[in-house]
Each structure stands twice: as C-alpha cells, then as structure tokens.
Write a structure and sequence with these properties.
Layout (H helix, E strand, L loop, with lengths): L18 E7 L3 H12 L4 E5 L5 H6 L1 H18 L2 H6 L6 H11 L6 H9 L3 E4 L1 E6 L2 E5 L6 E12 L3 E3 L15 H6 L6 E5 L3 H13 L2 E6 L9 H13 L3 E4 L3 E6 L5 E5 L4 E4 L1 E4 L3 E3 L46 E3 L10 H20 L15 H4 L2 E4 L4 E6 L2 H6 L4 E7 L4 H6 L5 E8 L4 E9 L6 H9 L4 H4 L12 H9 L10 H15 L1
Parallel strand pairs: 1-2, 1-6, 2-3, 6-16, 8-9, 8-14, 9-10
Antiparallel strand pairs: 4-5, 5-6, 7-15, 11-12, 12-13, 17-18, 18-21, 19-20, 20-21
The site of nicotinamide-adenine-dinucleotide has 27 residues, from helix 8, strand 9 and strand 17.
C-alpha cells in the first residue's frame, strides 16, 4: 500500500498587523469566502488556519470524493448504451482513478490556495486560533508553540468546520477505523470494506469502492439517505444491492474487533456479524469547537454554535455575544458560518452564508443599511427554503427545498406530483432502460414549487432549474412558459406540470405585496 501524500503547507505571512478589521478562524471554503467578501467591502482581514488552507472539501471531502466516483459514473453511462457499452468493456483501474484524485486534491499541498489568499489581499496566520477575550484571538503555532495575539476592530468569524464523529461502538477505536480522510486519500482497495453509516458519505463511498471491486457491507441504523424522499432512498438501495453491496439497514453496529487472523468483525444489534478488512465510519460530523476558547464566552467547548439569522453567535440565553465597550455596548462581534453552525453543512451553503455575512460585516462597518428581510442581500433564506444537495451515488439524487414529509411537518398545504423519468424521451435516449423518478412539492396556497427531488442517471444537472423556480418563487402559471428543450431529460418539468394540471387557482401574489395593497386601500377608504 502506498501511503497518502502527507499534508504540506507553507508558512504564515510575515509582518502580521495585530490589529485588523476582521479575524476569520478557519480557512475552509467558508472562511476563505468570508475573508474575501470583507476585503472586497473595503476592510482588512486576517485568516487563521491550523492545517491546509482550503479545508475539508478540497482535500478530504467534496472534490476528491467526486474524483473517486466520476470514472465509474462515466463507465456506467457508457454501459447503458449498446455500442458505447461494447467499446467500454474493460476494467476500471483504481490506480489511474487515484492519480486523478491526487491532482484534484492538489496533492494535499496548499500553495495554490495560499497564492489565491494573497491575490485576494487576505493575510494568513498559521496555527490554532482561540478566542481569548472580546474581539481577541490568540494563535498558537502548531509547530513551535509560539503565540500571536490578534484583535479585531469589527468582527471575529468562526468558520472552523467539522470532523468525523466517532460513535461509541465497543472496540471501534482499537481496530483503526477509517474516517472520510483515510477513505478519500487511500491508495488501496480493500478486498472487504465495511461502512458504518448510511448518509451521504456512506452511500457515496459504498458506490465508489463497489466500483473498484471491494466487497462492500454497509451498516446503518436508518434507511439509506434518511433525509431524502423515501422513493429516492429506495431507488439507491435497490441499485446498490443489485451491484452487490450487502446492506444492513435499520440496525446498529454495537461492537468491533479483530480476530487472530486479522479479520475485522462487527457485531450488529440484530445479532448478525459483518466480516471485513477495513471499516469506514461515516456516522455524521462533530463541531470543530473543542479548543477554540468557547469557555471564555460562556459556551460549551465541542458544541455546535447556535446563530441567529444574521449568523451572530448566541449565548446560553439566546442573545448575540455582545461587546463590552462603552462606545458600542451589546454590539454583536462574534459570528459563525459554515458547518460549525450546523444550519446547512454543505460547501455551497457555507459559501452562500459567507457571502451574506462578509457583505453584512462590511455594511455594518460603513453604516450602510442591512438587507435582512427574507431573500435580502444579507439574509440566508436559502438555508431554510432552498437548500440544495446532490448525492453522487449510482443513481444520483438531486434535491432542493422541502421533501413532502418536511413540508407536511412544517404545516404547509401541499400538492405532491411525481413522474417516472423513464417515460421522458430525453431520458430514454440518454440510457437504455433508464430508471428514475422526479417529484415536485407544490405550496397549494401560493401555487409555487417549494421542493424538488430527482433520482436517476445524471440528474445532478437538472437541479438548478428547480432551484431557480424555488428561490424565485416562480408561479406555476408562469412555469408553463418555461419550455424545456426537446429531447432532454428536463422535459420532466413539462410532464410534472401536465400531471398536476393547469386549472389550479392562480398563484397568490407575494403576501407582503398583497398586505401593502390591502392596507393602502383601507387607508384610502378611511
Ligand atoms: C466525505 C465528504 C464528502 C462531502 N461531499 C460534499 C459535496 O459533494 N458537496 C458539498 O457541498 N459538501 C460536501 N461535503 C460537506 C463539506 O465538506 C463541508 O460542508 C465543508 O467542507 C464545510 O466547509 P467549512 O469551511 O465550513 O469547514 P471545513 O472545510 O471543515 O474548514 C474548516 C477549517 O478550519 C480549520 N480550523 C478548525 N479549527 C481551527 C482553529 N481552532 N484554528 C485554526 N483553524 C482551524 C480546519 O483546519 C479547516 O481547514 C462532504 C463532506 C464529507 C465528509
Ligand atoms: N454529496 C454531498 O452533498 C455530500 C457527500 C458526503 C457528505 N456530505 C455531508 O457531510 C456530512 C456528513 O455525512 P455523513 O454521511 O457522515 O452523516 P449523516 O448524518 O448524513 O448520516 C449518518 C448516518 O449514520 C447512521 N448512523 C449513525 N450512528 C450509527 C451507528 N452507531 N450504527 C449504524 N449507523 C449509524 C445514521 O443512521 C445515518 O444514516 C453531511 O452533512 C452530508 O450532507 C455531503
């Protein structure tokens, strides 16, 4: 086995000014974008990073996992066509896939990202950042232990992300389990791989290692992809099973041990046992807040940070952590964005929060007005109403907004419309025996789409049309005028509209506009 390339980083910037407008702790995708926006807004920013600039997504998550999955997806697509399938009859070579993965993970070297920080005018300080007082962060160099104390004029932003959660399974620590980091950076294909966890990480890695030829056993205490529409989850379950993955669903892993022969044995709550050579733990994430000085501000180290809609960190009484200065008593100075606030733990949503927060910090500093109303410039409305995700399993699952179940739980009056993607000519042309389904969740009061899920080969690129319909609150009567090109898979939009019918009450206009018009009329009458 060739070990994964060791992380490699370059030194902090020299001549660091200890007083700066904004300090960002954590240079993942979120932190980088917060710093970029505040600098674009005319402020100075220093970013503190203890590992690689670029964070989890670049080196151990989104990017390298998709590189691990992409070749097999292309092969699967080719094999869904008779002539292309014949032409693509060879075997997938994992070593070639790993080499391409290494390139996308930038060989675990962050010089490219550091170069970008410099070009964006952001100062980098290497080390572990800790809050040591109001607007104050002390950075400890992880090599020589020297410290630098920084003070922010305007704000401190925590963007420290998350790490793999280790569940309390007896013996687990002793069998040297893989987390996402080892799985993503591996150069070996285990003969037998056990995966604990049936969320996005478990399902994607089962897809990847199954394609590399591992005998994969996946154990999950829930159904696969428990937050997705059940039909999407069932579809992925069936396809993984028919590809040879052994699924142990709705059971807990309770004990792990190595036998004398070196085989790893995992005992499940139903009494059965899974044998493997390696085990990947994919049971969710834990907040990177254990050692960032939360105790100094009355919060519990290790906890997710609770934020309000401005992303200000809240204290135990639900109040923003406020300033103690006479000039600005109570003014919020501490903010949190990305995985660490647990609102929407996805890279693109962390970056969305970063854009809103960075702009808001710059606006506050210059006394400009804040746009915090829903869908306003500084609001993060999409986290709640238009959260997007693509899970790159075979088949892919693409989701935005509410599932039918979540909409019902939120008390929305809905219509749910489903369509078999296999009946869409564009899909049938795309792959023989195309199997898939799409669902549109409609707010029946307002006649707008509030949720969309598709499962099927290559549905990822369908998602943005749905996202625009939801974020734009496009009335269904207008959506009939968005004509999908023939013969593409996007024609499913027309089929969903036809299935729903055209005779529903016209979309209610935006409630605030209606209210304004009504009150204007009332005033005129008065
Ligand atoms: C296997 C896997 C696959 C994924 N795939 C996708 C995907 O396809 N699409 C998607 O959108 N999301 C995906 N995600 C989720 C995505 O990786 C995260 O949402 C994203 O990385 C969060 O970004 P962040 O900047 O908030 O945190 P992170 O990326 O975790 O960055 C935080 C940074 O802060 C640093 N840090 C932490 N504490 C300190 C400290 N005290 N001082 C200094 N620095 C500190 C860390 O070293 C790190 O660099 C995946 C996750 C996993 C595990
Ligand atoms: N393509 C993507 O967007 C993508 C891909 C991978 C990860 N991510 C993100 O990364 C984060 C972490 O993903 P994840 O899959 O690790 O977490 P998750 O919370 O999505 O899923 C955890 C799974 O582990 C199971 N589980 C928990 N404890 C268990 C136990 N003791 N025994 C058996 N099963 C157990 C749960 O039932 C669940 O199925 C998520 O926010 C996810 O959205 C996103």
């Amino acid at each position: 086995m060739i070990e994964a390339t060791r992380p490699s980083l370059i030194a902090s910037d020299v001549d660091v000014d200890p007083v700066v407008d904004v300090i960002v702790i954590g240079a993942g995708a979120t932190g980088e974008n917060v710093a970029d926006r505040v600098v674009q807004g005319g402020l100075t920013a220093t970013i503190v990073e203890r590992e690689l600039v670029g964070g989890e997504c670049t080196y151990w998550a989104c990017v390298p996992t998709k590189a691990l999955l992409r070749d097999a997806a292309a092969l699967r697509a080719a094999r869904a066509l008779p002539a292309a399938g014949k032409a693509a009859s060879g075997i997938l070579d994992p070593a070639t896939v790993f080499a391409r993965r290494n390139r996308f993970a930038e060989h675990w070297h962050d010089s490219g990202q550091v170069g970008w920080l410099r070009s964006a005018g952001i100062t980098l300080v290497r080390g572990q950042g800790r809050i040591t007082g109001p607007r104050t962060v002390t950075v400890t160099d992880t090599g020589d232990g020297t410290t630098t104390t920084l003070r922010a004029r305007h704000a401190v932003v925590i963007a420290t992300g998350s790490s793999a959660h280790m569940p309390p399974i007896a013996g687990l620590a002793d069998v040297q389990p893989w987390t996402n980091r080892e799985a993503v950076a591996t150069n070996k294909v285990p003969d037998r791989l056990a995966i604990i966890g049936g969320g996005a990480v478990g399902a994607e890695m089962a897809t990847a290692f199954n394609a590399f030829g591992s005998q994969v056993s996946l154990i999950s205490r829930t159904r696969l992809l428990p937050r997705a529409e059940p039909f999407a989850s069932e579809h992925v379950t069936e396809e993984l099973q028919s590809a040879g993955v052994a699924l142990h669903l709705n059971v807990d892993a309770i004990e792990a041990r190595r036998t004398v022969s070196g085989t790893l044995e995992i005992t499940l709550s139903d009494g059965s046992t899974v044998a493997a050579d390696d085990v990947l733990v994919a049971t969710g994430r834990t907040a990177n807040t254990k050692d960032i000085g939360l105790d100094r501000i009355g919060l519990e180290p290790g906890s997710w940070l609770t934020v309000d809609d401005t992303l200000a960190v809240l204290d135990r009484n639900g109040k923003p952590i406020g300033d103690d200065t006479a000039a600005d008593p109570g003014k919020a100075w501490l903010f949190a964005a990305g995985d660490v606030n647990h609102r929407a733990p996805l890279t693109h949503h962390g970056k969305y929060q970063a854009r809103a927060l960075g702009d808001a910090i710059a606006a506050r500093a210059t006394g400009a007005e804040l746009g915090l109303d829903p869908w306003g410039r500084h609001a993060v409305t999409a986290d709640e109403l238009a959260l997007t995700q693509v899970i790159f399993t075979a088949p892919e699952v693409a989701t935005v907004g509410f599932t039918a179940q979540d909409a019902a739980a939120a008390g929305r009056d809905t219509r749910v419309v489903d369509y078999d993607l296999g009946k869409v000519v564009g899909a049938a042309l795309h792959a023989d025996q195309y199997r898939g389904r799409a669902r549109m969740v409609i707010d029946a009061d307002r006649n707008i789409v509030i949720g969309f899920t598709a499962v099927g080969l290559d549905v990822a690129e369908l998602l943005h049309a749905a996202t625009i319909a939801i974020a734009g609150e496009v009335p269904l009567d207008r959506l009939w005028h968005a004509v999908p090109a023939y013969p593409t898979i996007n024609e499913v939009w027309l089929r969903l509209l036809e299935t729903d019918g055209r005779d529903h009450a016209p979309a209610t206009r935006d409630r605030t506009l209606v209210a304004t018009a009504d009150s204007a009329t009332d005033e005129a009458v008065a």
